[in-house]
UniProtKB/TrEMBL annotation:
Keywords: Hydrolase. GO terms for molecular function: hydrolase activity. It comes from the Bacteria. The keyword Transcription regulation does not apply. InterPro entries: NUDIX_hydrolase-like_dom_sf (IPR015797), NUDIX_hydrolase_CS (IPR020084), NUDIX_hydrolase_dom (IPR000086). Transmembrane segments: none annotated. Residues 26-158 form the Nudix hydrolase domain. PROSITE patterns: NUDIX, NUDIX_BOX. This is Nudix hydrolase domain-containing protein. It comes from Candidatus Yanofskybacteria bacterium RIFCSPLOWO2_01_FULL_49_25.
Amino acid sequence: MTRVPLVDLNDQIVEYKERDETTPRDRLRIAALWLTNTKGEILIAQRALTKKHHPGRWAFACTGVVDEGETYEQTIRRELREELGLTGLKMVTGPKFLTDELDGYKYFCQYFLATKDIPLEEFKIDLTEVAAIRWIDPNELIRESEKYPDAFIVFVEKWREWIKEGRPF
């Protein structure tokens, strides 16, 4: 079993729980990667249909819950390796925010930002985690997420805000 830290409103660890025993009252930590290429496209990943949270929905390039003893950065590097087969990606720490509405769960989400040109065929996706990946133009992401909101995770609202403001880079 894997234990995860539960945190307070200041992102300070208050206790640990087995991942499978967490409830919507618990506040967890997640790390997510916002990956772009030099054409300005964003890599998005469709979550495997077998996932407990958001099965089949399009999300960040990769994301994961922080495990006991891990930092946000260690988590995103582990997830990159496990989900996309990537190692050694140069990233910068992006924004961190608190959300109370991801499947009813509460999360601190720490973004990491990177730009790298990687052809889709060079990714080694783990099909138990990721059903598909694709590069998408930011404006197309906005259009698709507005037309098919249930196809994307709830964080897409934050993405729209960033894209319209020309962020996060």
